[in-house]
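[Q] Does anyone have a clean structure-token version of this?
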Amino acid sequence: MNPRRKQRLTWALGLIGGVAVAMSIILYALSQNIDLFYTPSEVIDGKGRDMTKPEVGQRLRIGGMVVEGSVRRNPETLEVEFRVTDLGPEVKILYTGILPDLFREGQGIVAQGVMVEPTVMEATEVLAKHDEEYMPPELAEQMKGIKHVNPNQPDAFKDKQS
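[A] Here you go.
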């Protein structure tokens, strides 16, 4: 083989090897930052065809409904303990911090954190789902007597200024 060709081949193989190493490092780093979503039933029973359960120490998100009567607050700190269910098994969530305004018993939530026991999660963030009962303004007006006023129209606040 020609020495010049041999040098180009060496450079090409080195470049391909470098790109492969860089891609594997990037993919490894990304896999460490993935937060998988589980329901309480999937945490207890397993997820997927192979029924894999989250391991203790794994970061994940759990979504479900807050069980009625399960919220326990420490009056001296911001520690809160509650259970989440999806009409099946329950998972205990431990959280320290201020809960969202929409958080309440019977409400849907998503908690992000780390599993500390097979059925206990220590949450770093709790998100409350909003009400899914959206109603178009026309229907709300007919059913509930709620009058929708478009604030972009010039005469929208005429009655309130007088």
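[Q] Thanks! Anything notable?
[A] The two ends are 94 Å apart (CA to CA).
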